[in-house]
Amino acid sequence: MKVAKIEVENFRGIRSATLHLPTHAVLIGDNNTGKTTVLEALDLVLGPDRLNRRPPINEHDFFEGRYIQQAKREEVDGEAVEAEDGEAFEYPEVKIEAVVVDLSSEQLSRFGSYIEFWDQAQNELYDEASPEGVDEEHILNALRVTFVGKYNADEDDFEGTTYYSRSLKEDEKPVPFSKKDKQLCGFLYLRSVRTGSRALSLEHGSLLDIILRLKEVRPRMWEETISSLDGLAVASNPEVGISGILESINASLKKYVPREWGVGPHLKVSNLTRDHLRKVITAFIATGNGEHAAPFYRQGTGTINLLVLAMLSQIAADKQNVIFAMEEPETAVPPYAQKQIIHEVKKLASQTIFTSHSPYVLEEYDIEQTVVLQRSDLSVLEQKQIELPDSIKLKMFRQDFRKRFCEGLLSRRVLVAEGYTETDAFPTVCRRLADLDPSKYSSLEALGICTVNAIGETNIPAVAKLYGDIGKRVFALCDLQKDENKNRIVANVEQMFMHAEKGFEELVLSGTTEAALKRFRGCIDWPQHLQAKFPDPEIDIIPAMKEYFSWSKASWGIADFLAQCSENEVPEWLRETAVTIKKLFDEVETFDEGEEGDPEAHFVPYVAGTARIQSFGDKQIYTVEADELDWAVVSSEERGMGPENHYQAIVHHDDLGELSWNLWEYPVGGENRRETNVGVHEILDDLDYGFEWEKPGNKKAEAE
């Protein structure tokens, strides 16, 4: 079984979306595009345990938070206008429809009256009048199901149910797609923190619970455990001093209810029910050389994720017809394990749907399996397909994927550089200038620009087209071009930055100072093969350094030189280009309702609202207020587009233990992901948190 198509309407940040999914898919796109929203939508329509939550959705699940009734709208001459009937009102609804294909014989038998046909070649339902057409190889049995979520004004609450789609139009009363129906579909949505924190518990929906159900094993431990606990005597020894007091209380009570009173008051070790036991019984694991075991959820994040992998393999081995959906399998897992997770799960499951920012994950997927998502200004989520131009062969794309192409797929803006020298040197000089004068310059990383090596001027148009076709903003950086290639480049980029020299080395040598070249020469080891030609390179510094830069073309020679230059020593063309690029994107970044970008503004975490957390044991609900969080940078890891900064706020709660809220900034000025970790407890409502731009004077102004 697999999901062939999903349609989403009015759900979270998505006004509408229609996506066609391959057998195995990795969803990629900018931050806050809607990748996780797609997985949450699939969970609502197909997940067997998702609708157990009460309410199944809330006001934040509606597009723009709109769920209250509105005047009914109708289309007149292509425009939405208020209906003539002033009494007519409608409530915005969340609608999610999934088309599933490759049905098993058991599924065909159960869903028989609602089975339709799917044209795999056209990616649409087959509704031709000729019945013989369904025998074609590309026509598959299919089932449509639809989740409908809405606000119920009479109950003043939200409700949501999944139905057989055909019953919504064809039957007098819509027929629900029940929990048992969904269990037969085998959809598993694995949120890394939640899934790992209860993987080896016996809670309903945990991985261990799923394995036991697949193996049709009923844990016959509840009655025996409760009986054993019931038989434990607590404080019955008179020396403890409690039993005597309880006996005196019992004697006093019998004066008033001598007959009705049964067994006198006594202490027991617990009042746990089987539902309590499901939540408190958990597996312990000993790691390292010692024998001391700790609860599995206290292990490291990487260990838990690998534990999840092992359990996924067990589930898939027992039930081949499983659809796995998982967010960022790379979290806290080394590259080799990332690749192993993808390889194993793809091999075992009927369909896998991942989101990821890892090149090691992405390179495990073919081009047809890479789904690029882009959200329009009208909040319509669109699907883009990677199409290789003729000059970029599939073999080259696969071989150079991680080094050349991957960062561009994951970034919002791409600068296609002519060769190795430009790819290394231009980001370096922008970083250097930003350090010298941040009010005037900015690093490419801070602007969210990824530099991709075209490996030759004739490849620039094709590489630019590759990224432009999937919705990236694309620019080019190159030497002086002939008119034909120049026109091809201009046709595929938003802006081309072309200098007047025939090579980048000539640009630098003609635009810098001899003093800068001599200073740099004194900092490097002069290559042995240049000793004979230039025994004293400072006498003829420009020809000597030209030879050196040519020799170190792919070894950061010019990049290292530019990294130690003062502003005036950087060639004028490079300075002007850096200023131009900064201005291009300063116009995008706005502060204080449209005020032009402020170089002194900072990208900082914000938090608001109240979190509601349900205790793992006694089910009591606790709250955490926004002002209890204090953010700090706990790590900074260098990546291809600059540092990835991890911000964390920890709350030490008296009853819940350590709770943490986490934000990752990457590239600089962009939110990569966020994660709330409440351990084994359940978060009912989270805080509203993320990043925002803040000017130095904002807090002071607010205080005044």
SSE layout:
Elements: E1 2-11, E2 14-20, E3 24-28, H1 35-46, E4 70-71, E5 73-76, E6 79-82, E7 89-90, E8 94-101, H2 105-110, E9 115-119, E10 124-125, E11 139-152, E12 157-164, H3 165-170, H4 179-185, E13 187-190, H5 192-197, H6 207-214, H7 222-230, H8 243-253, H9 274-280, E14 284-285, E15 294-295, H10 301-318, E16 323-327, H11 335-348, E17 351-355, H12 359-362, E18 370-375, E19 380-385, H13 394-399, H14 401-410, E20 413-417, H15 420-436, E21 449-453, H16 460-468, E22 473-478, H17 483-490, E23 495-498, H18 504-511, H19 514-521, H20 541-551, H21 557-562, H22 572-586, E24 602-608, E25 610-614, E26 621-625, E27 632-639, E28 642-653, E29 657-665, E30 671-677, E31 682-685, E32 688-694, H23 698-703
Parallel strand pairs: 2-19, 3-17, 3-18, 13-16, 16-17, 20-21, 20-22, 22-23
Antiparallel strand pairs: 1-2, 1-8, 4-7, 5-6, 8-11, 9-10, 9-11, 11-12, 14-15, 18-19, 24-32, 25-26, 25-31, 27-28, 28-29, 29-30
Could you characterize the architecture of this molecule?
With 704 residues, the chain is of the alpha/beta class. It is built from 23 helices and 32 strands.
Which geometry do the CA atoms define?
A: globular
The first-to-last residue Cα distance is: 61 Å
Q: What is the number of beta strands? A: 32
Question: What structural class do helix, strand and pairing data support?
Answer: alpha/beta
